[in-house]
Amino acid sequence: MRKLIYGMNLTLDGYIAAPGDDIGWSVPSDELFQFWSDQLQATDLSLYGRKLWQTMSSYWPTADQQPNATPAEIEFARRWRDMSKVVFSSTIDKVDWNTRLVTGDAVAEISRLKAEDGGPMDIGGATLAGAAMRAGLIDEYLLATAPVLVGGGTPFFTVLDSWVNLNLVETRTLPCGVILTRYETRR
Q1: Using CB atoms within 10 A of its CB, is residue 164 exposed (0-12), middle (13-18) or buried (19+)?
Q2: pLDDT value at 174 more than 90
Q3: Secondary structure (3-state) at 82
Q4: Comparing C-alpha atoms, which of 26, 28, 24, 16 is closest to residue 130?
Q5: Any idea where the Bacterial bifunctional deaminase-reductase C-terminal domain is (predicted)?
Q6: Cα-Cα-Cα-Cα dihedral of 97, 129, 37, 85, to 10°?
Q7: How far apart are CA 144 and CA 170, in angstroms?
Q8: pLDDT at residue 17 in the model
């Protein structure tokens, strides 16, 4: 059975995007970028909601070809492009870069993928992760909390029908002031 990890950058007040889908506050430092690159390397399959997919796919497929790309960006772009991905959307009809589109029941498909043999899966996008969270499918939460307050926007956590008890697994502070916390779902 695969592990499902929900991890993203978020503000201290719990948002992954400020009003208007503004993520300008989340430009990662070199240390944070390397952390996410290492996470990507350890991931077997990435699950995306439409909005996050559109953000990622608008930049990373060719980021390694940009004249000012750093070695870390080149490495991340190649990893991202080559890894297996699944996009859940009923409004787009085409995906590229080693990606499969699912237009049906996301929770049923995520459950099916979790039951397969294989390495860890990550899930991104507030709506998709929220559906998986409400269904009890998230095994680990990985928060990269930035020292900024935005006052509103897209929350990292969704409204839940019942509590989810967690165990703290790791806490680390990066030089840029971002606090990394990792929690496992207590089953």
Answers
A1: middle
A2: yes
A3: helix
A4: 16
A5: 2-180
A6: -20
A7: 12
A8: 94
